[in-house]
Specification:
By secondary structure, the protein is of the alpha/beta class. Helix content is 46%, strand content 13%. The protein has two domains: 89 residues, no CATH class; 110 residues, Glutaredoxin. The protein contains seven helices and seven strands. The strands form two sheets. The chain has a five-stranded mixed sheet with strand order 1-7-6-4-5, with helices on one face. Helix 5 links the parallel strand 4 and strand 5. The relative contact order is 0.14.
C-alpha cells in the first residue's frame, strides 16, 4: 500500500502540472527515473519473502515453524531494529538523490540532501508536516537572524504565488541537529514532500533556475 500511495503521489503532481500546461511533458519522464528502481527492489524483496513464507523445501519449512517465530520476537523487541525497519516498511527512507529534479547548492556537509523526504521534526509543538497540507511547492527559510524576509516573500508571491508557499522557520537546535548545520539555509519542497533543492543562498535566484528546468513559461 505504501508503495502504491507513493507511486500515485509522485505521478499525480507531475501530471497535474503538465495537464494544466504549466510544465513540459518531459517532467513525466522523471516518474520512471525516480520510481522504477524502487519497483525492481520491491519485486525482488517480495519474491524472497514469499519463498521463505511459502516455500515447500523442508529446510524452509523447519525455519518457518521452529526458528523464525522466536528469532523474530526477540529481534523486533530491539529499538535499533524497529528504527531501522520503520523507514524501510513505511518507505519514508526512499530517496531521489539521483533524480534530475534534485539539486544541491552548498549542502555538502548537510545530513539531509536534495532528493530526501522532508525529515520529521517539531516546530513550536507542531510537526513540520502540519505546514504541508496543501499540494504545492513549499519554500522554507531556516534562519535565526533578525532579517526582514518581507521583501523576499512579496517577490515570491508576485512571481510564484499560485505555485509556492513561503515560510520562515526558526533554526532551532532540533532543526540544526536534523539537517546537520546551524547556518541559515532554505529548502524547496515538491508537492510530494521530497526536497527539490537545499541551498545556503537565501534568494529567488536558484528557485527560478530550478523551476525553469521543467516549467514551460518560466
Amino acid at each position: 500500500m505504501n508503495t502504491g500511495i507513493q507511486d500515485s503521489y509522485n505521478l499525480a503532481w507531475k501530471m497535474a502540472l503538465v495537464l494544466k500546461g504549466d510544465a513540459d511533458t518531459r517532467l513525466l519522464d522523471t516518474y520512471n527515473e525516480e520510481r522504477l528502481e524502487n519497483a525492481k527492489n520491491l519485486l525482488q524483496t517480495t519474491d524472497r519473502m514469499f519463498q521463505v513464507a511459502a516455500g515447500s523445501e523442508w529446510f524452509l519449512a523447519f525455519l518457518r515453524t521452529n526458528v523464525l517465530p522466536s528469532v523474530a520476537k526477540y529481534i523486533l523487541s530491539l529499538d535499533s531494529v524497529r528504527k531501522f525497519l520503520f523507514p524501510l516498511i513505511s518507505q519514508t527512507g526512499i530517496n531521489y538523490r539521483h533524480s534530475s529534479l534534485s539539486q544541491n547548492a552548498g549542502d555538502e556537509n548537510f545530513k539531509v540532501k536534495a532528493g530526501d523526504r522532508m525529515p520529521f521534526f517539531l516546530i513550536d509543538g507542531k510537526t513540520i508536516y502540519d505546514h504541508l497540507h496543501q499540494p504545492k511547492f513549499h519554500l522554507f527559510v531556516f534562519s535565526d537572524a533578525q532579517s526582514d524576509f518581507a521583501a523576499l516573500k512579496s517577490e515570491l508571491e508576485s512571481e510564484y504565488g499560485d505555485w509556492v508557499n513561503f515560510s520562515v522557520v526558526s533554526l532551532a537546535p532540533q532543526v540544526a541537529e536534523v539537517f546537520g548545520t546551524d547556518k541559515p539555509f532554505n529548502v524547496l519542497l515538491r508537492p510530494d514532500c521530497y526536497i527539490g533543492y537545499l541551498s545556503t543562498e537565501i534568494s529567488l535566484n536558484e528557485l527560478r533556475v530550478y523551476l525553469s528546468d521543467f516549467v514551460s513559461y518560466w
